[in-house]
Amino acid sequence: MATERGAFRLLRAAVRPSSTTRPTARRLAPSSCPSLWSKEISSSWQLSSTRSSAVNGTTSCVRCFSTSSTRREVKAVKPKPPPLDLSQYPPHLIRNFAIIAHIDHGKSTLADRMLEITGTIPPSQAAVDRMDEDQKNEQVLDTLKVERERGITVRAQSASMFYDHPDGTKYLLNLLDTPGHADFSSELLRSLLPSQGALLLVDAAQGIQAQTLSVLDEARKRNLTVVGAVNKWDLVKDDGRGEAAVKELSALLDCEEDEILRVSAKTGLGVESVLEGVVARIPPPPPYVEAEKLRALAFDSYYDSFRGVVSLVAVVEGEIKKGDQVTSTTTGLSYPILDLGILSPREISIAENPVVASRTLRKGMVGWVVCAMKDVKDAHLGDTFHHTHAPMPPLESFEPLKSMVFAGCYPMEPGGFPKLEDAIKRLTLTDRSVTSNRESSSFLGQGFRLGFNGSLHMDVFRQRLEDEYAEEIIVTRPLVPVRIVYKNGTEKIIDNPDDFPDPGEMLKVAEILEPTIRATIVAPEEYTGAIINLCTAHRGVPLSHTYLSTPSSAHSAARITLVYSLPLSSIITNFHSTLKSLTSGFASFDYEEGPYERGDLCRMNILVNSVKVDALCSVLHRSAVQKEGRDWAKRLREVVPRQQYEVVIQAAVGSSIIARERVAPMKKDVTARIHGGGDISRKLKLLAKQKEGKKRLRERSIGNVTIPLKSLYTVLGGQEHKRKGGAKDKDK
Ligand SMILES: Nc1nc2c(ncn2[C@@H]2O[C@H](COP(=O)(O)OP(=O)(O)OP(=O)(O)O)[C@@H](O)[C@H]2O)c(=O)[nH]1
Predict the structure, then answer these.
(1) Relative to the CA of 263, which ligand 1 atom is closest?
(2) Which residues of this UniProt protein bind GTP (predicted)?
């Protein structure tokens, strides 16, 4: 690659116009194209000299957008306008595929490169000048503020692109970029619905990680064809780690090493071969059948204040056009299609667009429809639409994941509830995996109890909510759903610590069950001991211990896969960050839902001057109560302002106090008025009077301690969350 870079620099110098002569169009020799690291690109090399010379006399390669010109000149090269005659694309010329991988293995970056190479989006500066290592990628499909700030994909996004294969055939590729984190796996599941295949990426430097295994598992469950690719090839160069990753991945996919693609999404190396691989190896949707009845699968939706609900659909059978009357199989409601089109990656309407030759979305295509659906509650993920006059059974869908982490959400500002309610309604539309129910707290007033798929999901939603709501919000301590089985056979699921049975009611309880997870940890072998200790400390039960790989070169260590059963409640706070720090960041962690297991749980109350602060109560395992109690009492003492009277903070389980902290009262020097040689009995009298006054004050203050909401916000991690918001969220 070093020689190629050198060649590129020489090339740039050779074609750079002199200051005295006017630049002229110049053909680059194929071997000069900087992206010729892959043979595939070399064979399909072509120049847009006519187009570029018309602009400013420079040359550029239409496939990789590398150029001999300066940055300013190249910006003027326009992307190809997408050909919008959709009738050219029967199912055999369509490929629907998802990009799946462990977090941060480069899915969004690869999606960017594919969109650039196919001319769907203009080249980003990084693509124009691939030699600039520090150029930032655009992450075009990561559109949310929170995604850009944290550098993670939160929402799956789709984009259609038109690909000119080197053999001259044009293909319509529908790409779905998925999130890597387990907390957003419902996004992954819905992205797999319209796909016939998946591109599985693995970071060349890291190899297979825990989520590589789990996303592959999901793809296999849906019988998708999986194409393996090792990304970030530029990072490994010739040090053997890349080939080790190829070996691992080929063993995992049970294929030849030659079938694994070598890619660098950052530099563009091998991206053309990925497009060719997708076309060659991922099967097309089933062929078109004459007079087939419509079945369209809704796999996503968002709300537009003018048009109502916009649904993303995969046309599985038949075709759909403007004016059609369709019926939802879930609600039975019928709607006229008002507008429809494709996402490329922005909406392009095909209903009335003069540059569009065909007006229908046909079998195998993925696009959006607006169908006069005004109520967001009617938009269901996995819904099937059929023509109202031709009823059809629903298509196979997916089970949405259950909420596993619950927390209360309250406005900081008094009277902020209606605004918060509105913001939650709007956000839950784009994130269907969040559940919300009204609740009220004696301390915080009216609010909501929200359910999430995990703690990162909760953190991300909180940040999106604060952006949307434009105010700070208080989010209470997370709780996993606890199942209470009573002696009379009845059961109750508890998602609020306040509903946990009191000691009196406990006599009627037969058992308390808590959710567990099946955690998979992948790490270099040397960290095995540390990981086992960590899991044991979190009440883990080992399930399996296998070798993922043996060392294949001086640069790759043997790696192990540990599978543990862990109580969900023990991993929602700091398990992942501790795992990362114990293993110097080398371990990766993923989990799936496990069964409910018996747990010795109890409710810990936090009392301030004997009054329960419901926002701080939690349900914990009895072994963790002492430590947690002391911790929370201390944290609260730091933020409760000193008052005229003493404030006592206690952590209690039932009637037993497990931790106590005290905030000393403010002390006024009442003897100050008495000068140096004053009478001692007068001083004592004043002090006794002050003591009496404070006693009365304290008696009055019971149940009336003022804890500013800002202090609660801090103690519940609000500031921490703000600080974390700016950083990349790899550690979650
Ligand atoms: N050196 C190098 N860095 C890359 C490459 N591909 C991606 N990256 C970097 O890796 C980081 C993560 O890339 P993303 O594309 O956000 O990864 P992702 O898989 O979409 O991440 P999630 O969606 O959060 O799971 C970014 O900083 C990218 O710039 C590559 O080929 N080479």
Answers:
(1) 31
(2) 101-108, 177-181
| Band of pLDDT at residue 33, cut at 50, 70 and 90 | very low
Q: Which residue has the tokens 């003897």?
A: 671
pLDDT digits (tens, 9 = 90+) for 403-414: 888 998 988 877
629 to 568, 620, 644, 679: CA distances (angstroms)? 20, 10, 26, 47
| Residue 496 Cα to ligand 1 middle (Å) | 38
In this structure, are residues 237 and 1 in contact, taking their beta carbons and an 8 Å threshold? yes
The candidate with the shortest Cα–Cα distance to 45, out of 58, 57, 60, 56, is 60
Q: Which of 619, 608, 642, 615 is nearest to 715 (CA)?
A: 615
The label of the residue with tokens 């941060």 reads 104
Ligand-binding site membership of 48 (annotated): no
Q: Which helix (H) or strand (E) holds 347?
A: strand 347-349
Domain 405-476 in CATH 2.10.109.10? The answer is no
Spatial distance between the Cα atoms of 188 and 214, rounded to a whole number of angstroms: 11
pLDDT for the residue 122: 72
CATH topology for 602-668? Answer: Alpha-Beta Plaits (3.30.70)
DSSP 526: G
CATH 3.40.50.720 is right for the domain spanning 295-387: no
Give the pLDDT confidence of 104-151 residue by residue, as tens digits: 899 988 998 998 888 887 766 545 554 444 444 455 566 667 676 776
Most ligand 1 atoms within 8 A of CB, residue of 35, 37, 103, 108 to mutate: 108
Q: Matching CATH topology for 483-599 and 602-668?
A: yes
Which CATH superfamily hosts domain 86-281? Answer: P-loop containing nucleotide triphosphate hydrolases (3.40.50.300)
Is the domain spanning 483-599 CATH 3.30.70.240? The answer is: yes
Does the annotation list 457 as a binding residue? Answer: no
> Which pTM does this prediction carry?
0.73
> Measuring CA to CA, which residue among 627, 536, 516 is closest to residue 578?
536
Backbone angles phi, psi at 379, to 5 degrees: -90, 110
Taking only the tens place, the pLDDT of each residue in 636-663 is 888 777 776 778 888 999 888 988 988 8
**237 three-class SS:** coil
Q: Best-predicted range by mean pLDDT among 150-154, 205-209, 425-429, 466-470?
A: 205-209
Angle made by CA atoms 447, 634, 580, in degrees to the nearest 5: 80
Q: Is 387 annotated as a binding residue?
A: no
For residues 574 and 577, give the distance between their C-alpha atoms in angstroms, rounded to a whole number. 5
Backbone angles phi, psi at 483, to 5 degrees: -100, 125
Residue 555 annotated as part of some ligand binding site:
no
| Residue 322 token pair | 């403007």
Distance between CA atoms of residues 122 and 79, nearest Å = 5
* 477: helix, strand or coil: coil
Is residue 380 marked as binding? Answer: no
Kindly indicate the confidence band of residue 439, based on its pLDDT and cuts at 50, 70 and 90.
confident
The domains of the chain are located at 86-281, 295-387, 405-476, 483-599, 602-668
d(CA 106, ligand 1 centre) in Å: 3
Query: Phi/psi at 431 (nearest 5 deg)?
Result: -130, 90
Exposed (0-12), middle (13-18) or buried (19+): which is 209, by Cβ within 10 Å?
buried
Residue nearest to atom 32 of ligand 1 (CA): 232
Cα 157 to Cα 148: distance, rounded to the nearest angstrom: 14
Pocket of ligand 1 (CB under 6 A): 101, 103-109, 137, 139, 151-153, 179-180, 231-232, 234-235, 264-266
* DSSP line for 209-231: -HHHHHHHHHHHHTT-EEEEEEE
Pairing of strands 339-343, 308-317: unpaired
